[in-house]
Write a structure and sequence with these properties.
single chain; 493 residues; disordered N terminus; alpha/beta; seven-stranded mixed β-sheet; 19 strands; FAD/NAD(P)-binding domain; 21% strand
Length: 493
Amino acid sequence: MRGPDQRSVAIIGAGIGGLAAAITLAAAGRPVVVLERAPAPGGKVAAAPLGGIAVDAGPGALSLRPVFEALFAAADTTLDRELQLARLPLLGRHLWPDGSLLDLPADPAAAEHAIGAFAGPAGARGYRDFMARAAKCWAALEKPFLTVQRPGALALGAQAGMRGLLGTSPFGTLWDALGEHFADPRLRQVFSRLSTYVGTSPLVAPATLMLVAQVEAGGLWAIEGGMARLPAAMARAAAAKGARFRHGADVAALRVAGGRIAGLTLRDGEAIEAGQVILNADPATLAAGHFGAAAAKAVPAMPAAKRSFSGIAWAMAGRAEGLDLPRLTVFHAAEAMAELAALTYRGRMPDQPSVTLWAQGRHGVAPPPEGREGLLALVSAPARADGRRMDPAVLATAEAAAFGAMARAGLAITRDATAVMTPADYEALAPGTGGALFGPAVQGWQAIFSRPAARTALPGLFLAGGATHPGAGLAMAAISGRLAAEAAMAERI
């Protein structure tokens, strides 16, 4: 029998996780084919052609740059050679209905000064102490948890050191931790956004999510020409090392023989043999049987109540005038707690949602560019267990609330072309998820151990993507792809 280093690997999905796996495997000399049903790589990092321009319809910035530098280095190139990156001077602008405004610089010292001017000396001290705590969380969890195959709770405690782990407040909630540092409710709103990176409420998210603040402090980068250039560059790097790509290849089922993966079958009936398969898709899609009954039990089914939030997104080509904008602006609702409770516990849209707006051609605070610009407005929405389309009246109400909030802040948006994505649209892209954008919801301290790991119960089948360990986001998805590739190469057959 051929050794495992000679086995062919089929990767389903050319999202960031699948591309990272392809680079890792191809760089190690493994034969790799990437099967993607879309005409271009990227998955959720997609660009919508609107009004004659390409508008990013997914993530708006890149963080944890060293993760991508290591991937491109493995392919004998560099991140800077493949892409033009611009570091964002602001992590975001925050606006409230009463006219309050906070620009949060990326530099922590400048951020402390800005927060002091906004909320007084107590706010500045709270921020300084909060960031020190976030740094401890990152130091305790990065190497023993986030960048390695998922350990259990006891193994993590042994690797991280129980004293260091307990210092991250793993049993508390993010909301409670924020309350320990920020008396000003507006600052709790600002930093409660850390929970949106994993699609859950700060009322139930573990305090360890403070580490996201440390990640942001390490820098956020815009990609010149749009975020979709990242997966295109990753695909080029993988192809240069020998990975093959087949676009328009829609996988219908995984094939199992002798108790392990034997290959897959495309929707058109073509059978492809593969000794191993890496599935870059939400494991809920697998568990729901959308890749065939033979592989459905490779991962546990995810209860609907355990899903992360979905969202409504308006990708637009047009003009945003009346306010000078940075790349990211958050229009906060007046009553954040009511919004969070509605989303988490009642499964309905809030009457006045907070709105996130990405002005994709702007880096620092800048006036509108000449001509059309790409804009992406987002609000959180509950995932839908039934997968039904959103009631048009509910969608219209959400749209009126979101754009009304931006208008009341002084922003006038002219839309020449718009594409709208709702939970039902996200469900159609990943059947069985209810449209959840971040996989399992991160609720409670045990949640970090409940995300599926790279290995599954079915020999030869491995998982990658933002719904698996270590979590959501571009860099975490890339780490998951590397971990899946390493697990495949380590499998003893």
